[in-house]
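Predict the 3D structure for this chain.
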Amino acid sequence: MPEQLFVARSSLPCPASEAFAWHERPGAFLRLAPPWESVELESHTGIRDGGRAVLRMKLGPLSQKWIAEHRNYQPGRQFQDVQVEGPFAVWEHTHTILPETDSTCVLEDSIRYRPPFGVLGRWFGGGMIRRKLERVFRYRHRITQDDLRAHAAAKECARMNVLISGATGLVGSELIPLLETGGHTVTRLVRKPSKTAGREVVWDPSRREIDASQLSGIDAVVHLAGEGIANKRWSAAQKEKIRSSRTLGTGTLARAVASMPVRPKVFVCASAIGFYGDRGDEVLDETSVAGRGFLPEVCRECEAACQPVRDRGIRTVNMRIGVVLTPKGGALQKMLLPFKLGGGGVLGSGKQYWSWIALDDLIGAIYHALTHESVVGPVNATSPSPVTNREFTKTLGRVLHRPTIVPMPAFAARLALGEMADDLLLASARVVPRVLERTNYEFRFPELEGAFRHLLGREEKNTRSPVQIGHSG
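Done. Predicted structure below.
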């Protein structure tokens, strides 16, 4: 059976040397893994001849190991991934980066492959494989272009050693690869030492314990740790856990950073648009006052706990984060199955505003805050296009090609979730990112439909794309 050839090609906004360096740095594989795929990188020995990447691919309860060996390594120009164990009869992926101009280059991914099971595999799986390759490589090339553009925007900033709490969480696990592909170093703030490679500092926020002496050499801090707001139904005990995890953790870290002999230049702390409370159609920017209720109180207390670093003259940024969109977790992950089954619909009246942000834009905004001195104080980490719940619902249904005719009345949401339903699902907060706009952050996904299509690999057919795709064989 003849081999098949797949080629994806696009222009990158940087010299070829920078694009190749991006691919070689830690974090590149994780940045390129589509969020709708379940792929785990078990080990990687580096992009050199003989180096190997060991992957674990999951499909429901099943999983398969895929081992690829790097060959034909040509510094600054190309390398290959050749399957030595995995699902294909043949798989040879050549990454080539060629100069285009002094400031741009061309990335070409060329894959020669043969499906398993011979002719039967080609007949029954050939079309599916081609469609999957197109989805994956449109995503990969878009990420590569956008990340390189973000690193170019931060080129005036020196390489940093960034301390990150909540490193294994939804946001931290995506932020770390972005920083690493930009040449920055990451130190993880952890409760228990792990066996993974990399620098760690141990702390115990519940006991207000952290060894400030271990923080030497830290240039920037990103504080993401805290009990998930939607992890459990809000009992009195759970609400106290949410509050204390944020105030104690933030205060402990802020005091330790403030006591350092050589202090970092910037302290970025996660907050939430829950700061504003339920505000109807009112347009809310960073100058808007706090709302009333549990979440506004928690956000105010968390932001106030940063005062020790402010008092020491450290640039402090409170990221008020909106509804984070990714199929890997959070609200979108919970909504996908019912929507795919045709059970999606508006929540409550559907008139409440949901201020959202794609996960790639959230980590991009944090990176922007780290590397731009003009960003200081409260920052709304939301897209510039907040939508009502009804608009959100209809857009997701359109992208998934599913009806959205099964509403959840407000009383049903309250029955299922209690007080949390009012604050997280039924409250309206029309938040706009004035600081990010004023400091020239370039949103990757300013519109909801474009974000959904990218995150779910649902690009419309016949839409003009910067990635050229070809098949033969």
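The mean pLDDT is 93.
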